[in-house]
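Amino Acid Chain and Its Fold in Token Form
===========================================
Scope: a single protein chain, as residues and as a discrete description of its fold.
Amino acid sequence: labelled as such and written in the usual single-letter residue code.
Position: the record begins directly beneath this header, with no further notes in between.
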Amino acid sequence: MMLVEQIKPMLYVIDTLQHFVGKASAGDMTRITSALQPLQTLARRHNTAVVVIMHISKNAAQGNGGDSSAYAIGSYAIAGIFRTLWTLGRLKESDGKPSPIRALCQSKNNYAEFDPPALLFELRDGFRWAGVDADLSAEDLYDKKKRSRGRPADKRDAVKDEVLRLLGSGEAMPSLELEDKVCTVTDCHFNTLAAVKKELDVESYQSGRQWFSRLPDQNTENA
């Protein structure tokens, strides 16, 4: 704690929590809270972001974890302390073999109305960004029934193709109609469509009381 007080870092990483709290039981919320209280006080005082790394339980790793906010060793005693929780896991190909793509999915978020999409990346020859997937949840990473889901990019490609098909004619489309058609055809989450629209630079504008969507090279005359 004295080191944090002296350096006043912008980011403080604890790897792992159990090493930090020492003899305090990870399942005892009162003792864990007491052990972390000095760090929480310093973080607020110096506006320091704190990232705490925890291993998931063996039960969760085997696909029997249920709610991902209880994946960490210590279960809900740990989840109750932190305002945001992220779960890291490796995807699998459709044949069940490990994929090179890893995903970071949010399990708890007390600061935003909607959870952000999963963050995808590879660690081959360094770090390589692999995009986002709004349909991938933390539970999907360790659920036995959902682990072999193939590359998440497949669904984004399908959504992208459908948006281009509907807007590629040169005519703008009511945004609600676009959302309904794309999500119905591809069975995607709204967040996935929003991410694809951003990637394609789809523009939204209001005409009267209705909102329309268009590709960048289109105009509003067709609305």
Q: What stands out?
A: The beta strands are 11-15, 49-53, 84-92, 98-109, 118-122, 128-133, 173-174, 203-207, 210-214. The domain at 153-222 is CATH 1.10.10.10 (Arc Repressor Mutant, subunit A).
